[in-house]
């Protein structure tokens, strides 16, 4: 019999890919803010619950849940503080409390590489702060449900939001936009394809039974372990797309306190048997 997992934000980029990837081996249930905003999962038959407290209690009462994977997040700078706190802090805290109450094996929290201790990087500051506070609250909750933090590096792939960096660049190159204004592009990022991210979550789920009973927190950095400059990434995308777009490096300034090199320390994840399979060329070609 399949174990049951709950994926919050199942209608989002990561959540929808995870659901499709894990559906063969697990019974997948989705948790969403808006049950009508489901264009990424429109042809799927996952049971869906809304993220209000009454619906969440009903969910835990109806199903024997093996693990909760929290992917729901709000990061857009124009959303209200109330919505950001509700989704990024209150929802995961409530779910982790319920997970402990109902003897759920593990709660897998999705974090970001922006969440660096003592970082002064101002971009998406409220989002990063909420992620920091969320993790602190989760760690403060006592119980037997294992807390696992997945710190994702620069994830990309099909069906991501149009305003995401990779999607935006690819679309402009495919459309042969006249020019793209960019920073000097020397900042480096660890680009990880969505299928490799999903495989990382699957490997962690499959490893739960092997984890020591006395541990209560573990963190995995999800990335290839290698970084590439933004300028090299964009030029590679232009080459593969055969675009005529003019790349104007240096037309924009770096963001304040820019992170100049970010790459995953994925040693612990590799020890579980996970290996990223999609190289940068293959990943970009999937989007073209």
Written account of the structure:
This protein is α/β, with parallel strands linked by helices and 288 residues long. It has two domains: 150 residues, NAD(P)-binding Rossmann-like Domain (Rossmann fold, 3-Layer(aba) Sandwich), CATH 3.40.50.720; 73 residues, UDP-galactose 4-epimerase, domain 1 (Alpha-Beta Complex), CATH 3.90.25. It has nine helices and 13 strands. The strands form four sheets. It has a seven-stranded parallel sheet with strand order 3-2-1-4-5-6-11, with helices on both faces. The protein has a two-stranded parallel sheet with strand order 7-10. Strand 1, helix 1 and strand 2 form a beta-alpha-beta unit. Helix 1 crosses helix 6 and helix 5 runs parallel beside helix 7. The longest helix has 21 residues. Belongs to the NAD(P)-dependent epimerase/dehydratase family. It comes from Algoriphagus aquimarinus. This is NAD-dependent epimerase/dehydratase.
Write the layout of secondary structure elements.
Layout: E1 3-8, H1 13-22, E2 26-32, E3 48-50, H2 53-62, E4 65-70, H3 81-101, E5 106-112, H4 125-140, E6 146-152, E7 154-156, H5 165-174, E8 179-182, E9 188-189, E10 191-193, H6 194-207, E11 217-222, E12 228-229, H7 230-241, E13 246-249, H8 267-271, H9 280-287
Parallel strand pairs: 1-2, 1-4, 2-3, 4-5, 5-6, 6-11, 7-10, 8-13
Antiparallel strand pairs: 9-12
Helix pairs in contact: 1-6, 2-3, 3-4, 5-7, 7-9
